[in-house]
């Protein structure tokens, strides 16, 4: 549950309740910033410009993670430089690049994919990485998993469409 600011969209709150089991624990699994700025404009360097729907979500949520910390939304602080021992927002791209080794064609295809996909939700619940990302070309939401992160399926036409799918039960975000 989103705790702290009292503002927010019904879709966002319902999706957060679905992710966190509808409970706010002592760690505040989903918390709101003290004051949500009007319009989050976050650029991670070309080509990463956060789509407006996701920016609206980000302006009201600081942290959104399940109780076992095996599924989480990537939030604003996660896009900033992180210590070496933490999960980076671009960790999945880094893993793919490491797997590509010195194969220039493979490296190029990995970079081309991640230049047009912005991950926003990650889970490790099944013992492997699974994620959702916004396709920066058409705004759709895609789902991928290891070991082939770049092989994706479209799960929603937009970020809010994805949240609506969670709320309606068409997409299940399983959490332990």
Structure explained in plain terms:
The protein has 6 helices and 8 strands, in the order E-H-E-H-E-E-H-H-H-E-E-E-E-H. Helices cover 31% and strands 18% of the residues. Strand 5 and strand 6 form a beta hairpin. It starts with a strand and ends in an 8-residue tail after the last helix. An 8-stranded mixed sheet has the order 1-2-3-4-5-6-7-8. The N terminus is likely disordered. It has one domain. By secondary structure, it is α+β, with helices and mostly antiparallel strands.
Overall morphology: globular
Major sheet strand order: 1-2-3-4-5-6-7-8
**Overall pLDDT metric:** 74
The biggest beta sheet is recorded as: 8 strands, mixed
Protein structure class: alpha+beta
Radius of gyration: 16 Å
Query: Based on DSSP secondary structure assignment, what is the total number of beta strands?
Result: 8
The number of helices is 6
What is the topology?
Layout: E1 2-3, H1 10-20, E2 30-31, H2 52-58, E3 63-65, E4 71-73, H3 76-79, H4 91-100, H5 104-115, E5 117-123, E6 130-135, E7 141-145, E8 153-156, H6 159-168
Parallel strand pairs: 1-2
Antiparallel strand pairs: 2-3, 3-4, 4-5, 5-6, 6-7, 7-8
Helix pairs in contact: 1-6, 4-5
Task: From the structure above, extract its key features.
176 residues; alpha+beta; eight-stranded mixed beta sheet; 6 helices; disordered N terminus
